[in-house]
Each structure stands twice: as C-alpha cells, then as structure tokens.
Amino acid sequence: MKTTYTFSIYSTTAELPERWDDLAIDNIFLSKRYLEVLEKSAPINMTCHFIGLFKDQTLEGIAISQFLDVNKLESFGDRDKCVKSTVRNFVFKNFCSHVLFIGNNMLTGQNALCISQEMDLKTAMLQLKAAAEDLKEIFKKRGSKVHITTFKDFDENEVAQIETDYQEDHYKFSIQPNMIFEIDDNWKTEQDYISALSKKYRDQYKRARKKIVAIDKRKMDLDDIIEHEDVIYDLYHHVAQNAPFNTFFIAKNHFRTFKEVLKDDFLFYGYFSEGKLIGFNTLIKNGEAMDTYFLGYDDSIQKEKMLYLNMLYDMIAYSINQGFKEVIFARTALEIKSSVGAKPVKMFGFIHHHNSAINKYMDKLFCYLEPETIWKERNPFKELT
User: Fold this and answer.
1) Which of 191, 246, 267, 269 is the most exposed place for a label (fewest CB within 10 A)?
2) So what's the pLDDT on residue 76?
3) Spatial CB neighbours of 97, under 8 Å, sequence gap ≥ 6
4) Positive or negative CA dihedral for 218, 223, 227, 231?
5) According to the 3-state scheme, what is the secondary structure of 257-291?
6) How many CA atoms are closer than 13 Å to the CA of 281, on its beta-carbon side?
C-alpha cells in the first residue's frame, strides 16, 4: 500500500491535533504552551500559523510559520545611519515587506519543525514547501501578497539533507551564527567556570562584578512583571530600536503572557538601582538547554555598570548551578558573547523572492536584507596542556 504524506494548516492552538505535544517534547518552542503565547501576544505585524505533517493520517511532524508585514513597523532599526542602511530600508519596504517564514523569526536555531522517527527531514521539508504555497494563497485572499518565503534555521548536517530540493529556485544563505555556550560536564558551580578562564578574562569577570555591587538583582514573578510593565517595555524598546535591523517589535503584554502560560519555565530577572528598574533579562528552559530571550536596559547606566556583560555572567552562573548542558545566546552581540565563552555555530536557510526577475539577483539583494557584522572571535579559557 502506497504511503501518503499530507499537511494541515491551523490558525489557532485550539485546532491543533491531540498528539501535537507528543512531538514537541524535545522543543518547548513548538509546544502548545509556547504557541499559545504567540497566539495571545505576537508582534502586531506578525501572523502565525501552525502546520501538522501527516503520514497516512497519523501526525508525524509539527511546524510553525510566521508572516511579517514590515510596513507596520515605525522603523527597521535606528543604530546605523548610512547610505547602505537607507538603500536597504527602501528595498525592504518596496520589494520585500511581506515575508513568510517557515520557522520562528523571534528565535535562533532550528525551531521550525519537529518530526517523529517515522518521517525523515527531506520528506518533511517537501511538505513544508507545499504548505508555504498554500499559505501564500491564504494571504493573497486577504489582500497581502507574499514577496519572500524563507526557511530557517538549519545546521550544516540538516542543510546537506535538504538543499537539493531548494537549489534550483531558492538562494541558500548563511547569516550571523548562533552563539552557543557549552557547559563543561565538570562544572558544578560558577566558581568552576571562573577557574577555567584565563587570567585576562578572569580579570574581566572581576572588573565587571565590582561594577555591579550596588545593583540589586531580583527574580520577578507575574505580579512584579505586571507592576513594572511600562518600564520593562521602554527598556526593551530602547535596545530593540537601537539594533542595526529589526523586522518586528514585541507586544507590551508579551512578558506577562509568557509568565502566565509557561510559569516556572520562563524566568524574568530585574536589575534595580535605588529601587528603580534599570534593566532585565529573560530565560526559557528548553529541555537540557537554557535559551536566552529578550532583554532591556537603561543605556546611560549600562556602560558604567557593565550591565550587559554582568547579565551574561548571571545567565551562565544560573545555568551551571541548575545543571543545564548549554546556553543558547542567539545571534546578537557576537563578540561580547564570545568573550564569555560562547562559540559560533553556523546556521543556514533558503530564501525565494516571488518575482522571478528579482529572484535571479537574490544573492546580491540579500546583503541588503541581512547586514553583515564584522567581529572577532575570542577564547576566554585557559589553553589545555
């Protein structure tokens, strides 16, 4: 009997098949709980769909798509004021403003899909390619023509399995790496990590910690997050606004919703100076990995107190103490993350512009869509002898 592969597209978590979470067991970012967070507090310019992949009527794969209308943003990021950024913004607004992601544009790493042992990656991706075509029709009927379809993020091994199905009409790209901090099996406390640092980076650690002595760090519960919601959003928005490039801004109720739905799997830490919230960071427990999420800070205090660097040390310390295997630091601030021990992991994707004339030059256009970051990798650890 011939095997039949099909897919279904869902617009709400209430529609999801009963077995959905059985497949999301290894990735919280495809669980019903996390998808419910997006359903309740996705960025205003984002529309999410959820995709079930079936083998002979049995659910064997789950995936997420996100449609972004970047014309709804007040800006794409204000940090870089240059001719290239101006050209990029013009190109994006006029030719690339409607983007369909098969995957999660709010995260770094392969959070696009989970599949069972009964479905291979190549088959799953072919189904997702077909699902993307159906999604384009859905948005077209709503009056929003998709300009670009992107499949992200895949590592080298995954790309090798699927690239033959995309090489004809998609441009394979590699963007900024995912910065991953691997926790040594022998580290049981923060002091073990400090002892592994070379003198230069132990001195950096000590210098940073001295700067933050007067800062009060607090683990914030739901009531705390609600109480400080306006300040939290202002701190987040300041950091996001000054990034080199943005395709979305989170909703004001995003962190509150995260805490309501994920409870103890979502951690929110506030940094206070004389009773005033000056910064925060967030963490998400994802199996044996700790995923760092959005943060914010008062830039006038950040440099003086080395607040961002101290946040990185705090995230590492917590993850070591709680027995996690790695910290996913994502793809911003590459050099400073490298200086605390995170290593770059190359990620790949496939992109297609639905205007065939433009698609021919996607390799040249892409440099405007994804600004290149020049950075130097650091190694803060002692050399092994």
Assistant:
1) 191
2) 46
3) 69, 70, 71, 147
4) positive
5) HHHHHHHHHEEEEEEEECCEEEEEEEEEEECCEEE
6) 18
How far is CA 317 from each of CA 188, 191, 259, 266, 313, rounded to the nearest angstrom? 10, 9, 22, 17, 6
* Nearest of 104, 129, 118 to residue 49 by alpha carbon: 104
pLDDT at 363: 86
- Residue 249 tokens read as 């801004």
Helix (H, G, I), strand (E, B) or coil at 67: strand
> Nearest Cα to 276, choosing from 316, 223, 234?
234
Q: Is there a contact between 290 and 327 (Cβ–Cβ < 8 Å)?
A: yes
Cα–Cα distance for residue pair 5/123, rounded to 1 Å: 8
How far apart CA 350 and CA 15 sit, in angstroms, is 29
Query: Rounded to an integer, what distance in angstroms lies between the CA atom of residue 174 and that of residue 165?
Result: 17
**Cα–Cα distance measured from residue 267 to residue 252, given in angstroms and rounded to the nearest whole number:** 17
Domains of the chain: 5-176+346-369 (3.40.630.30), 179-345 (3.40.630.30)
Identify which of 1, 349, 381 has the alpha carbon closest to the alpha carbon of residue 178.
349
Q: Tens digit of pLDDT for each residue in 110-121? A: 999 999 999 999
Q: For residue 135, how far is the Cα from the chain centroid?
A: 22
The pLDDT of residue 75 is: 52
In the chain, which stretches have pLDDT less than 70?
A: 74-95, 244-245, 369, 371, 384-385
Check: pTM over 0.85? Answer yes or no: yes
Is the separation of the CB atoms in 146 and 359 below 8 Å?
Answer: no
Give residue-wise pLDDT tens across range 297-319.
Answer: 999 999 999 999 999 999 999 99
